[in-house]
Design goal:
The chain is of the alpha/beta class. It has two domains: 153 residues, Quinone Oxidoreductase, Chain A, domain 1 (Alpha-Beta Complex), CATH 3.90.180.10; 151 residues, NAD(P)-binding Rossmann-like Domain (Rossmann fold, 3-Layer(aba) Sandwich). Helix 2 packs across helix 3. The two termini are 21 Å apart.
Length: 339
């Protein structure tokens, strides 16, 4: 039997950020690695995910999930290899997805891990297109926004892990027009030339409302919101009657130190009979089998494309997170621990 590691590195939150997170708010620390107890497994993480929601977990405020504790490891999606098991159904060598990222080794109950097949897709894909971001895009578009063939769809943050999938799902299922916003001309080119969006614009090049009106002259029916702020205001202005918005994220205001103004045109929601609905992917677990089946099929047929931005080394984990908040990623931002 191969000897188990005695220690591993993990990222701890050591201070609550005020505004943008800074390197002094976190620390990469060595911690002992425990052998798994009865019904538990020990996993060597191969990849872990950094996601926008993690910024909210750094605050000690009331929310839908508990905040990260100070001087303890942060958490998030990870995929790795089982290196020790005292649980039925999971054996050494199996690959699993679980929620104890931000560390090299994770010891956890077997029921909190899900086996994945490295032969069907690259392991990193289970943190992106076949993982929580893809599931979020699928549920947000089809269940929350009640997408129907023929709808005109606008997606903000459209080159990111969730937005890029939401826009492509809409295209595949018969949207009349798919419009995306992104933060660079290079990303705009990607949306049109590779992901098949009908139109896209760089939100840094001018007022979002004006650019959206030009890209969607006949209005929009569905808005998938990953940004909030000016983007949400622009969508409200461009909505056709009975438009639906999925409010998935508001990354534009995650690091604000002062209250951000609401969209100034909320009054339009009454006359247009709009529906603006927030979402958490955990509310849509029952949809996962259908999501996996559909997305696996679209990947196999080549209809669906995805990109990953992979940062190598646990020591670069916090840099990857900051890069995500700055929009430096194309598609899913992932930290690789493979050696």
């Amino acid at each position: 039997m191969t000897a188990l590691p005695v220690s591993g590195r993990e990222w701890h939150l050591v201070a609550r950020p005020h505004g943008w997170p800074e390197p002094g708010d976190v620390a990469l620390r060595e911690a002992p690695v425990a052998e798994p107890g009865e019904g538990r497994i020990l996993v060597r993480n191969l990849y872990f995910s950094v996601d926008p929601y993690m910024r909210g977990r750094m605050n000690d405020t009331k929310s839908y999930a508990a905040p990260y504790e100070l001087d303890k490891p942060m958490y998030g999606g990870a995929v790795g290899e089982v290196i020790a098991s005292r649980a039925e159904g999971l054996a050494v060598g199996d690959h699993v997805v679980h929620a104890l990222g931000w560390r090299e080794y994770a010891e956890l109950p077997a029921e909190q891990a899900t086996r994945v097949d490295a032969g069907l897709a690259p392991l990193s894909a289970y943190l992106g297109v076949l993982g929580m971001p893809g599931h979020t895009a699928y549920a947000g578009l089809f269940e929350v926004a009640s997408f129907q063939a023929g709808d005109a769809v606008f997606v903000s943050g459209a080159a990111g892990a969730v937005g890029s999938q939401a826009g492509q799902f809409a295209r595949i299922k018969g949207a009349s027009r798919v419009i995306g916003s992104a933060g660079s001309d290079e990303k705009v080119k990607l949306l049109i030339e590779e992901y098949g969006f009908d139109a896209a614009f760089n939100y840094r090049n001018g007022p979002v409302g004006e650019q959206l009106k030009e890209a969607a002259p006949d209005g929009i029916d569905v808005y998938f919101d990953n940004v909030g702020g000016e983007h949400l205001e622009a969508a409200i202005a461009s909505f056709n009657p009975h438009g639906r918005a999925t409010l998935c994220g508001m990354i534009a205001q995650y690091n604000s130190t002062e209250p951000t103004p609401a969209p100034r045109n909320l009054g339009l929601t009454v006359g247009k009979r709009l529906r603006l609905q927030g979402m958490l992917v955990r509310d849509h677990a029952a949809l996962r089998p259908r999501f996996v089946k559909d997305v696996a099929g679209w990947l196999a047929s080549g209809e669906l494309k995805y990109h990953e931005t992979v940062v190598d080394g646990i020591e670069k984990g916090f840099d990857a997170f900051l890069g995500l908040l700055r929009g430096e990623n194309t598609g899913k931002m992932i930290v690789s621990l493979e050696r």
